[in-house]
Amino acid sequence: MDGANHFIGGAFDPGLGTRTGPVYNPATGEVAYQLHYADRATLDRVCEVACKAGRDWGNSSHARRIGVIFKMRELVIRDTDILAELVGKENGKTLDDAKGEIGRGLEALEFAAAEPHVTKGEFTRNVGGNIDMFSFRQPVGIVACIAPFNFPVMVPLAMTAMAVATGNAVILKPSERVPGAAAHLSKLWTEAGLPDGVWSVVNGDKEIVDAILEHPAIGAISFVGSTGVGEYIYQKGTSHNKRVASYTGGKNHMIVMPDADLDQAASAFVSAGFGSASQRCMAVSVAVVVGEDTANTLREKVVALIGRLKVGSYDTKGADFGPVVTAAAKKSVNDAIERAVQEGGELVVDGRDLKVEGFEGGYFCGPSLVDNVTMDMHLWQEEIFGPVRAFMRAKDLDEALDIVNAHEFGNGAAIFTRSGYASQRFANEVEAGMIGVNVPIPIPVGYHNFGGLRRSKFGDAHMFGPDAARFYTKMKTVSHRWPDPESVDQGLSMSFPSNS
Ligand code: NAD
């Protein structure tokens, strides 16, 4: 089976490693297949192939590279159903949700087609006597992208589209829990005309990630995943003199002001809070509601909407969300609920006993809601990657902002209000990289920059937008003089050259 293998030199390949790991269907809890894990010797082979192929690719014309990007976009659209099925089976999210992420992944390809515009250089004539100066960008060389389980198509496309377009050879290390979509993307890149070796996939866990972090041929690493791992990757990768961008965990707050449209706020909280079984880095985790009356009314509306949610397998008609990804993830959700109750939270909706008929072995968690959460509670302090959401109460916007800004994460934040003053203050003062005003999941479109603040991001790059092109290219600046062959030599000058 293709998905069980790495993708090296344009072909599926089990590699040289001897370790394997199970890939589960989270809706049934059954092992679907065993995945080959790569070792250092396999990575050496991949880098050898990538180095050669990348050199030619990096020297190819922009038109050629952009042609491949255009074709890849067409093929991803053509194979949306196939990709969505692979995502649903391994990640657990519903087919509609999977198609949504594929659509957002296309934006990365669309913006990558603008690569020549974003990377074109600068030129100044006569910076000194008859000297012109220009700067230009070249691909880094070999870049590695290490992906999480929660967006098996969108995140790999977001990380790799611009890397390919700018002329790099790319090594993707997908999450070992969801490798199927990456295998299919490999076939599509080949069909799109990408030369063999420019795109590789290596599967595995920490062992292969450590090999990537240390490999001298790899110049840049883009990582998306949890904060502890992202911080480690940033520190170790940069200590090996690689450029590293780590996009990490979140705890996204949604402030609801008394003047907000509370129906709109309630549906935003439930859809952005529980969609994908809350396994989104931009999921709303906490509603910070201003005023007791606002909180009580909003809570009533939220509870009514939660009551209508249907949990099922990825392909169950009408299911709103599926299982969490592993048995361990389910346990951590249940433990977080238990602890929240012990610490004084009010468990308003308890989803722990959910049974999904026909899927008794699956990792399903029903939606849970805890009210009266406070900043000393584990449920507020930690990112809980599963469907338990929190309500907090604040007396005014100042207090609400203090709560949001006290958190160590700063990925996204939203405010629901009809007040221009409140929304403007929020955007100015909130410590989050991606901000929504009456928008619950403010993921920027592919031509803007994506990335959080504080411990939600390590490094100063952004994943999409013009920053992505800068991250995957290195700049050179050339001082250029062509003296008149007939002119007389000025002789030796030992002073530091000045241009005046
Ligand atoms: P994870 O950190 O467990 O895994 C991410 C990648 O790192 C995987 O490829 C995995 O194989 C590898 N990895 C895991 N443990 C490692 C270790 N000890 N050493 C080296 N490599 C290791 O993350 P996940 O559970 O797959 O994804 C969920 C997390 O990702 C959440 O925290 C979520 O917020 C975050 N996320 C962030 C963004 C963002 O843009 N900021 C987007 C999506 C997901």
From TrEMBL:
A Pfam family annotated for this UniProt entry: Aldedh
Domain spans labelled Aldehyde dehydrogenase: 20-478
Domain of life, per lineage: Bacteria
Record keywords: Oxidoreductase
MF GO annotations: oxidoreductase activity
EC number: 1.2.1.-
Keyword Methyltransferase on entry: no
Protein's name in the database: CoA-acylating methylmalonate-semialdehyde dehydrogenase
Taxonomic path: Bacteria, Pseudomonadati, Pseudomonadota, Alphaproteobacteria, Rhodobacterales
